[in-house]
């Protein structure tokens, strides 16, 4: 039996620095722990450290790992010198240049990778660094990997309400809000123009607080948002989905950590990997569900990103045409756009 509240309780516990258990494996998130919490969790000082394989590869701890799949966790054996500060250095890439690793560290095979992989997913959902102490005591919140999957189940999303919303460039727009019982993220759709029998022009816009609200020049999100509304209006009709998938799904704080790494010279792809995340952690099932609830099964998709097309199609929406959505670069986002073109297959 899955408990629909279980994942939410575990997210809350992790953010407060309380241990949780996934399928019986006790975990303490390193980011929200401290030396005292670690001591209470791990009286015998034998808890191992769990990190992603992307992080392990960055730390050159991937010697016993086949491939650097960021979803595959790696266990680092507890050594006498692996104290709370050393574990923090394993977890947090912002310290990589400043704090050389002590070590040596030994990675251990994972008997059952499923709960460990679920733990890394839960950290991402909670917006925390994907790194844990494993195998202690004092757990009050126990959940299963299936609870985490149901937390992300897009079919739980329902249409909540709709209203007229005149916006700049589309005075006839209507806003539709969606939510699921599990998550505080409320996604919205902006319906522009009147259906004319053709598939709608659709833009999947992932939340970018820095670009959408603060006018960040580091990315192209702000101009893409404005231009999407204009393009949909000009095409006759269509839908802008505003998806609460900040930072390609890793959350605002982790995205800003990625920005700090970019300040050190790493590009957007390597920054995510160093943090221990997939390059793109988004799930476009949410977008497909919203389109389904709006009665749309075929779309013309405004994007330069082939992965978005594939993701939406995999989730059951027919993409009858990809419409490019390129905006001129500025000196601050030139490298970001070049990285998208050269490393993530964007058609720019
Ligand atoms: N992790 C991370 N996320 C970023 C970075 N820069 C922008 N983002 C996020 O990327 C998302 C924007 O991506 P999209 O506009 O959908 O762009 P895209 O996937 O490149 O595809 P198209 O614009 O559709 O071609 C937003 O959630 C931003 O917050 C970064 O350097 N790191
Ligand atoms: Zn952005």
UniProtKB/TrEMBL annotation:
UniProt GO molecular function: GTP binding; GTP cyclohydrolase II activity; zinc ion binding
Annotated binding of Zn(2+), by residue: 208, 219, 221
Active site (record annotation): 280 (proton acceptor), 282 (nucleophile)
EC supergroup of this enzyme: hydrolase
Keywords noted in UniProt: GTP-binding, Hydrolase, Metal-binding, Nucleotide-binding, Riboflavin biosynthesis, Zinc
Gene3D superfamilies tied to this protein: GTP cyclohydrolase II
Domain GTP cyclohydrolase II: 162-324
One Gene Ontology CC term in the entry: cytosol
Top-level taxonomic group: Bacteria
Binding annotation for GTP: 203-207, 224, 246-248, 268, 303, 308
Pfam families: GTP_cyclohydro2
PANTHER family associated with the record: 3,4-DIHYDROXY-2-BUTANONE 4-PHOSPHATE SYNTHASE, GTP CYCLOHYDROLASE II-RELATED
Family note: Belongs to the GTP cyclohydrolase II family. In the N-terminal section; belongs to the DHBP synthase family.
HAMAP family: RibA
Official protein name in the record: GTP cyclohydrolase-2
The encoding gene: ribA
